[in-house]
Amino acid sequence: MAKQIFPHQYIAIEGNIGAGKTTLCHQLAEQFDSRLILEQFTDNPFLPFFYDSPERYAFPVELFFMTERHKQLQELLSQHDLFQKGIIADYFFVKTLLFARNNLNDQEYRLFQRLFNILNASFPKPELLVYLHRPVEELLSNIKRRGRSYEQDISGDYLLNIQNAYFDYFKTNPQLPILILDVEDADWINEAEHYQRLLTEISLDYEPGIHRKRLVLP
């Protein structure tokens, strides 16, 4: 049986920690036989230390993330057959800058931003950027449920700051089609109807700018 064709050639699924973006990307890539780009965050050797001592380890953890994301995207997005098959990614490179703004002091961030601007200049932009929005309380519950030891001390304030960083970025980039999808209580792993309704929303064509919708659950 032939795979279905996904309506977007390159889509990035974003969201806060615990929003469910990686799981959704796996489901989409399986259904549409798309090339899957997943962030390799578990390979960051500074990450466990960062959660224990963020001020000390913020710069190396963000620098490692940036260089690894750049290396991965540079390798994958340069493959000519990639866009023939379609791309579904669970992150957008700008995520690098947003997390850095939240975690670095002003002096560190200015240096980091200069490096980021150099690395970001050559990347193609996705046809659609989807941000899966959940309430902070739901994110904390999901983080606890998945049980990664180094994430268990993440605070609600930290998640709220990350969310605000995304929203601030969206307001300043009207040239990119951005869909903010409120997915409170949605479970696209166990509820097929939730997944289908989400798929309907992200399959539509969107003009550049911010589009905010609430996923209507059955």
UniProtKB/TrEMBL annotation:
<dbReference type="GO" id="GO:0005524">
    <property type="term" value="F:ATP binding"/>
</dbReference>
<dbReference type="GO" id="GO:0005737">
    <property type="term" value="C:cytoplasm"/>
</dbReference>
<dbReference type="InterPro" id="IPR027417">
    <property type="entry name" value="P-loop_NTPase"/>
</dbReference>
<keyword id="KW-0808">Transferase</keyword>
<feature type="binding site">
    <location>
        <begin position="15"/>
        <end position="23"/>
    </location>
    <ligand>
        <name>ATP</name>
    </ligand>
</feature>
<keyword id="KW-0418">Kinase</keyword>
<dbReference type="InterPro" id="IPR050566">
    <property type="entry name" value="Deoxyribonucleoside_kinase"/>
</dbReference>
<dbReference type="InterPro" id="IPR031314">
    <property type="entry name" value="DNK_dom"/>
</dbReference>
<feature type="domain" description="Deoxynucleoside kinase">
    <location>
        <begin position="11"/>
        <end position="202"/>
    </location>
</feature>
<keyword id="KW-0547">Nucleotide-binding</keyword>
<protein>
    <submittedName>
        <fullName>Deoxynucleoside kinase</fullName>
    </submittedName>
</protein>
<dbReference type="GO" id="GO:0019136">
    <property type="term" value="F:deoxynucleoside kinase activity"/>
</dbReference>
<dbReference type="Pfam" id="PF01712">
    <property type="entry name" value="dNK"/>
</dbReference>
<keyword id="KW-0067">ATP-binding</keyword>
<dbReference type="InterPro" id="IPR002624">
    <property type="entry name" value="DCK/DGK"/>
</dbReference>
